[in-house]
């Protein structure tokens, strides 16, 4: 069943049932070593179903969840034996979060079990932020899509590994490392994973979004850092901008489709995947995306743009 969350739409199944989890991988055509996130109602469900009984929840997780659950924060925990290895990509840890969406929480409560729920799209495609995006990718592969309208955030959750010292943000999202460190005294030394910095982790990722190419439309994507003075002409090309990225006079006067994603990283995050899909429907041959200024709030959306881009 596909359902909305505050981040993107998820494809949900019983996260404690290996056969159900396998059907997720089949529907998405997802590599089996790409772990899934389990979505829970609260800490009580996490403790009851997902972690060893003798495990002591790290202080940093207690602090972070008190401030940011329900919300776009995923935590890495040691898994209980009952959690299938198909969920974790063969690892001894499991990624969990409590979503901040009434439909998602109602579905979890109705199922009374953690739901494994990666993004509800074909593997490698832009994540779905509307029910129609799910139908485009998986309409003939799944029985039901719950339509909750557009997702509020538009990119996936921040993933925190507090089992290592110092703690590490494995995947950036709109919840920044700086916000986590400010709210949680035990996360003052928090680091953020950088692509290419940890070879072993990249070869065997413990969380989704680290190993494979993601978020890619059919048209090739070029990330512009910084925007060039001129580009090859073509009326079937598109340029994704954001407000204030460059004065209008500095933009190439070319017959392109110009799309303004918004004036803040939050707005760009909310509209990025939607517009990549819309441009695919429009049949453009190439998509150029301007890079955002380097700030903590832009880190998550720039991570997605880098992964979508075939060239920079």
TrEMBL record:
Main localization, broad class: cytoplasm
Which positions are annotated as binding L-threonine? 7, 39, 97, 117, 157
Organism classification, top ranks?
A: Eukaryota, Fungi, Fungi incertae sedis, Chytridiomycota, Chytridiomycota incertae sedis
List where in the cell it is found.
Cytoplasm
Task: Report the EC code(s) recorded for this entry.
Answer: 2.7.7.87
Which top-level enzyme class is recorded in the Swiss-Prot or TrEMBL entry? transferase
What is the name listed in the Swiss-Prot or TrEMBL entry for this protein? Threonylcarbamoyl-AMP synthase
Show the PANTHER family listed in the entry: SUA5, THREONYLCARBAMOYL-AMP SYNTHASE
Q: Which organism is it from?
A: Caulochytrium protostelioides
Q: Which residues cross the membrane?
A: none
Which family is this sequence assigned to? Belongs to the SUA5 family.
Q: Name one Pfam family in it.
A: Sua5_C
Q: Where is the YrdC-like domain?
A: 1-175
List the GO biological process terms. regulation of translational fidelity; tRNA processing
| Reaction(s) catalysed (UniProt annotation) | L-threonine + hydrogencarbonate + ATP = L-threonylcarbamoyladenylate + diphosphate + H2O
What is a single cellular component term in the Gene Ontology annotation? cytoplasm
Q: Which residues bind ATP?
A: 30, 34, 93, 119, 127, 171, 215
